Every structure is written in structure tokens, then in C-alpha cells.
Amino acid sequence: MGATAGNPYLEGNFGPVAEELTTGELEVTGRLPEWLDGRYLRIGPNPLGAVNPETYHWFVGHGMAHGVRLRDGRAEWYRNRYVRSDAVAAALGEPARPGGVHAGFDFAANTNIVQHSGRTLALVEGGARPYELNETLDTVARCDFDGTLRGGYTAHPHMDPATGELHSISYFWAWGNRVRYDVIGTDGRVRRSTDITTHGRASIHDFALTENFVVILDLPVAFDTKRVASSVPPAMRPFAKATLAAVSRIALPPRVAAVLGGGADASGDSAGSTMGFPYSWDPSYPARVGLLPREGSNRDVQWYDVSPGYVFHVMNAYEEGDTIVCDVVRHPKMFATERRGPQEGVPTLDRWTIDRAAGKVIEDRLDSSGQEFPRIDERLTGRRHRYGYAVGVDPDSANCVIKHDLVAGDREVKRLGGAADLASEFVFVPSPHSVAEDDGVLMGFVYHADTDRSDLTLLDATSLETMASVHLPARVPQGFHGNWAPASV
Ligand SMILES: [Fe+2]
After folding, report:
1. 249-269 pLDDT per residue, tens
2. Measured in angstroms, how far is the CA atom of residue 372 from the centroid of ligand 1?
3. What is the pTM of this model?
């Protein structure tokens, strides 16, 4: 795994793997449900080539996609492939993939991988465009949704189960204090796009969708002007400082933005940047959530104060009369002292009840144990959910999946290995014709330290019993998001 001079995000199972593998007919312990016909896809950072351990931030490593094809009760193949951003393609001696770059930003797509309108998309936020992959995870092209996307995209779109449309909030520091709400239709084209004014240049990783509202998280992790200005070459610093200080609320021309950077070096290679990550905790930034009516515009947004903290991920949100219930994993701070990854206290499962009539948010702690990567049965996105699933992140729970029963106020914990083993995000896949909310399968990667390999593990979502483990030929580094991509869509 390589020596790393003390950066935890380059060590152990956070460290990158070097080989791209293609392995057929994988060994399975237990029994794979025969109705599962599709690919389990997962993506994460996997820096190619040397990086500086002092400045390397987990969020900026080159993207690597992993996939397991399941069909007829068999695991047909495992593949892992670098996403061919321009920097990766050049390093591998390959031609650059087609498709326009937004504002010179070609970040490694490393954060989420989704299937929508016939495309498999590797996603990253902060200003870059997605990459389209093929069935076998080879990079096809940068994607601007047939020329309909204005600028970059997000890593966390949410699909409305009623319409199949993909909703998103995208941000880019050079847009000043505005973000963009997009709706992509089932034809794979943007059908609606509107700009929303935020307090400043926030990093907005996720949002929530209800039947009538878009819930926008305007929280105190913002583009760090001083840090970015100090990272540019000395001759440019006076220009950079003056420009960045002047534009905290206005947009920059794309060419200026590209010159000033923002996670990427001059070649657009984020992983090779000497700056690290350009967003940090800003104690002067007010923490608020906004409610945008789905068909509304910026002037219709209602903002509500919340206590300072940071939310990467919303479990789900739904409406109850005049209130919006929003379950989130809340971190007490983010990127205040730790510059290499998300590690600023225990992330807890909290409930925000946004009382529209009273104009305030009631905050409750549902579970004080450390957890992340919350998921639900996504047939209920924007509708009331009873169950939620997360992965433990406390020192003694990093090998655990947690099932929350939010009606009973209870939880079950499933331990998936020994003390040194690590679970990744688990996604819920409903059984065919299932009616009960937890009638389905949970699946995700588990790293086993004793063999230095990973399994794709499937759990019965009702009982949390292990159904099957697909044994992979290598380890899958700790990464970000995974999804089930059914073959029939
Ligand atoms: Fe995320």
C-alpha cells in the first residue's frame, strides 16, 4: 500500500490501488438473489501517480469506478477503472476524451456514480462536468446532457420516484453567491434551470427534495479566499488576493476563474494540486436552510436559521402539513482544523423539523453515535420514510451497518467483520413487487484486513442477515458513493 508520511487518507484501505482488473465468475459465499440483474457501481478517490501527502485531501484524488455485474444468481464480473479525466488520460498515454470543459475545471470525477436516462455517470461537484462511462466502466466522454447543462454539475442529484426526473443543486466558487437548481428530464436533457442566491460561496454537497419543495443547505463551509490566494505563484498573489477579495458575492469570468484555480492546478488536475482543498469552515457564515418551491424561483425561497454545523448528506425529507421533516447526518464543524479529510467531531443523525408557519427549525438528535452515508428506500425520496440505513464511523463501529426504525425510535446494528475491517456505503435495493419498506437487499463493499481484499456483501434489509458475499480479487479502497444500476433501465 506504500509509505505515505502520515496522511491517513493515503494509508491502509484509504490508499490507492494501482491495477485495473477484469475478473470473471467471482466466488460467492451464500446465495445471490436471482432477481438481481444489473451492476453494483461504486466510486472513490484513487490518486494516480505521486501526490504530496502534506497537502493531499481525500476529496481530490483521481476517480476510480468499481463495478460488480450480478445476473441469474451469479457474479459475472468485477472491474475497476480510472475515470479518464484529461490528466488521467494523459498520464496513461491515452487521448483526451471528447466533451467540453467548464471554465477550465476538469476535476477527477470521484464522488458518485449513477445511472439515469440510459447513461452511467461519474459525478463530482464544485464546477466540473460529469463523465459518461459505458457498461464496462470505460470512460466515453464528458457529459453536458446534450448541450443543455450550464456549467458544472453536482455529485448528489436526487431522482423523483414519481417522475424519474433528476433534481440537483450545483455550485462553483466563481459563480459568487449563487448556486443552480436543475431538473433533468427522463430524456437526459435539462428541462428546468434556475439560479438561487446564497449567503456566500458555500460548498453545498447535498440537498433534499420533498413533494413540493427543494431544501437547500447554505452552511458554513465556504471557499477560502486566503488559502487559495496563498497557493498561487508568488508573482500572481497580489492579483489573486485583490480579485478574490472583490468577488465574494459576484461571479468571475470563466477565464479568470480558471487562472486562479480552486482545487485544480493549471492543468486542471485536482489531485496534483499543491493547494489541497479550497473550502474551509467559516465561523462568520450564517447556517441556514432554504425552501424553494419546486417550480419557484429565487424570490420564492424562504430561509430558516439552524445551529452552525455541516451536513454532507441528507437521509431524506418529507412534508407533514406546514412542516418539512429533514433527517440529516450532521457534523459539528467541517474543515476547521483538519485539512485532509472530514474529521471534525462525531457526525450524528439529526432531525430538522422546519416549521413554515412559525418560521423556525426545531433540531432533534435521533442518534448520537457516529455514522455517515445515510440511505433509504429511494422509492420514498421526498415522502415519509420509516427506515434509514447508515454506516458506523466510530472507532468501534466502522465495520457496522446501522438500520434505523424512525417510527419505533429504535435501531439495529449489523457487524460485518473483525475490528480492523471496514464497511462502505450500503444501498437499499427493493425486492421485485415488494410492498414493505424494508423488503429488499442492502449491498455494499466490506474491506477485510486479514486477506487485504474486499467483498460485495448483501444483507436482507428486513433482518440484516447476511445473504451473500461476493469475493473480489482485490481490495476496494474506502471511497464515496455506490448505487445499484439495474439492467432493465
Ligand atoms: Fe456524498
Report:
1. 666 655 555 555 544 443 445
2. 9
3. 0.93
